[in-house]
Amino acid sequence: MSEDSGPEITAEPPESPFHTTGTDHITLIGSNEADTIEFYRDLLGMPLVLRQPNLDDPNSTHLFFDTGDGRIITFFVTDDRESSAAPLRHQVGSVHHLSFSIDPERFADIKHALEEFGHGYNEFDRGIFHSLYTRDHNGLTIELATDKYDIPDERRGEVLATVQRIRVADGAEYAEAEHLEQALAELGIDSDPVELPDAPTGAGVE
């Protein structure tokens, strides 16, 4: 599909029956409680904010974690399910990966913590952001990402839509840092670049 024939890219709400107001939570089928808490609370630093029986299956436990900004990720777990770090097989409807924001000033510390917990990772420069890729205790790919500039949450869609327009006009295949810089300048968003290490472009996790 060419750029000209593709769907419209815009931060404006579409003409639809209704509009969502944000992400409330995402729920995944987890393995057991201990391993889930060890990865998401003890390594990634997400507070466990609610624990109760699964309302649809009281034989399983429902764990709620705050990802850092009040947005919640939850897991259905049971103690008889073993964790398996083998990579997941993807199919239509499956989760490819989850991406969480991290503090760019803690980048080196985060890499060290992953190593200390025995989690391999790959590091990539994604043009407009910088990412570490690892896997949780159940083989789910976890991306730990930071933008190259501090973008206000309420303007992220507007910034990305502007980056898209600039990228297409530039004839570039992917969004690059210079497209982000131009978009921020055009939108009047004053933001300094964050200091990040050099890293290759690419895909995949160890």
Automatic annotation (TrEMBL):
Xref: Gene3D superfamilies: 2,3-Dihydroxybiphenyl 1,2-Dioxygenase, domain 1 (3.10.180.10)
Record-given protein name: Lactoylglutathione lyase / aromatic compounds dioxygenase
Kinase found in the keyword field: no
Domain (VOC): residue spans on this chain: 22-147
Any single Pfam family the record assigns to this protein: Glyoxalase
SUPFAM superfamilies: Glyoxalase/Bleomycin resistance protein/Dihydroxybiphenyl dioxygenase
Residue span of region Disordered: 1-21
InterPro entries for this protein: Extradiol_RC_dioxygenase, Glyas_Bleomycin-R_OHBP_Dase, Glyas_Fos-R_dOase_dom, VOC_core
Lyase found in the keyword field: yes
Domain of life per record: Archaea
Any one GO molecular function term: dioxygenase activity
Keywords of the record: Dioxygenase, Lyase, Oxidoreductase
